[in-house]
Amino acid sequence: MAHELGHKWFGNLVTCFWWSNLWLNESFASFFEYFGAHNADPSLELADQFVVDYVHSALNWDAAAGATPMNWTSVIDNDSVSAHFSTTSYAKGASVLRMLEHFVGERTFRNALRYYLRDNAYQLGTPEKLYDAFRQATSEDLSYTQTYPGIEIGELFDSWVQNGGSPVVNVDVNMNTGVITLSQERFLISTPATPLAPQQWQIPISWTHSGNLDFTNTKPALVLTDTATIQNAAGHNFVILNIAQSGLYRVNYDDHNWEMIASYLRGSNRQRIHKLNRAQIVNDVLHFLRADKISITRAFDVLSFLEHETDYYVWAGALGQIDWLRRRLEHLPAAHAQFDTYLLSLMDTAIGHLGYNEGASDSTSTILNRMQILNYACNLGHAGCVSDSLNKWRNHRADDSILVPVNLRRYVYCVGIREGDATDYEFLYAKYNASQNTADMVVILRALGCTKDETLLNHYLGQSMHNDRVRIHDKTNAFSYALQGNRENLPIVLSFLYANYNEIRETYGGSARLTIAINALATYLTDFTLISELELGASFGAAINVVNSAISNLAWGNRLAPEIYEYLLERNSAVTVAAPILLLFAALAARFLH
């Protein structure tokens, strides 16, 4: 609702001159979707959720070599117009606006928006008109002109609008002199076949150091245009850039700085590092691991603090990329088993902290955290999570008036269907057909895809096409739903796709939606045999991209699996040995005290 209200001003009162500037409509609406609603009800924590929802998704999207600029001049026909309704125009644009608000300050930011709307009411908006509004607002702000002499706000803004992708800031700290050297480059998750032209952004840099950790002031200390140096006090253990991840960039530190950060995060004062910075650290490290910009040992060393972490935002920053890594190992049973053991050990503290039942005073982030942690833990086969979910499911089956709490239904329903039989499936499918609640219908549809029974899964996929109650975008998601809850469903899903391709394309209303559905399968293709079957048996162009992506993913896993396996084997063995020793000490201590 807040998003659409934002369009009353950005999109209606002033609308973009052409679709290439779609971000002038959608970025502002997306910005107010979170921050407008946050002002109305701060308990929803939407200002913080913005980072893990929008900033992280924008950075992930921008990591591809083909990521387009916010101002995309190639918008010339219906297909390119539709393509520009993307993460770039929504999440990235809104993230750039948030960065600018932290850069110029809330008052000056609001003044700039007022000038833009006032001067262009009932007219067409352009980036240059918006830059002019920011020029006027910053010229009236003495603090801005004194802090950033020589920084022309329009040029800074335009560097983010015209450049595709997003940067990574590389940080090297000389511990002897205290000099911090900064450089920038475009972050790419993989090296493109054809090298890209060099790019530069004007990057607002905020930072703090371990001598005086301060995450309250997000106002940037400088703007990085190429390279820069900062004088820090010699001997400070580490520095952290991008306070509260207010800027749209990743940060990669030298190995010693990473080591010091990792050590601090494992200590009892880890919460002195802002939760959004802890979220950025894990998200960045996992992306750097994918891009071969950090060693496996260093990456897992940094991530090790997660075994003590209970915060929603940190786990939200971690789980998506952890799942990507887990999928890369699925075709390698030994490494995959060690990785699952590792993940379950990391999650134990969070699971114990959250519990399996909701509390009356739970905050929004606690509710969200329980949902994401237990959903993932149940999918990993965590014994306590599966057992509790089955109890809730069977109580509901036995007495329909004993409801599963709304926020727990996604994983409880999934476990009930995955561990159940045809009667469980039919019970939930009947609830789907009887439901008048759209959100609950989506939860049920996801859960039905968790079935392990081939006959029931084919029924599910068929009904996703033929049941008129299934909305078109939910039809598109059905293939992913069938794999999210049970990865072993992949051969059945692919067989259904082969056998019904033409009907599926017609049901989806053409190839575009089907291509989205097929592309979503790429990350689940973890077997060379299945990839070969798709390559040989599919008569549709979208399969080519899926095959290439899947082969690349498998190659990554094969290349790094031996080192990951050795690291995790040693780590998991140490944990296994340490646990009974700790129990022995506890028993001896109890006896002594008694």
UniProtKB/TrEMBL annotation:
Residues 238-534 form the ERAP1-like C-terminal domain. The chain crosses the membrane at residues 574-593. Keywords: Cell membrane, Glycoprotein, GPI-anchor, Hydrolase, Lipoprotein, Membrane, Metal-binding, Metalloprotease, Protease, Signal, Transmembrane, Transmembrane helix, Zinc. GO terms for molecular function: metalloaminopeptidase activity; peptide binding; zinc ion binding. Residues 2-143 form the Peptidase M1 membrane alanine aminopeptidase domain. Belongs to the peptidase M1 family. This is Aminopeptidase. It comes from Operophtera brumata (Winter moth).
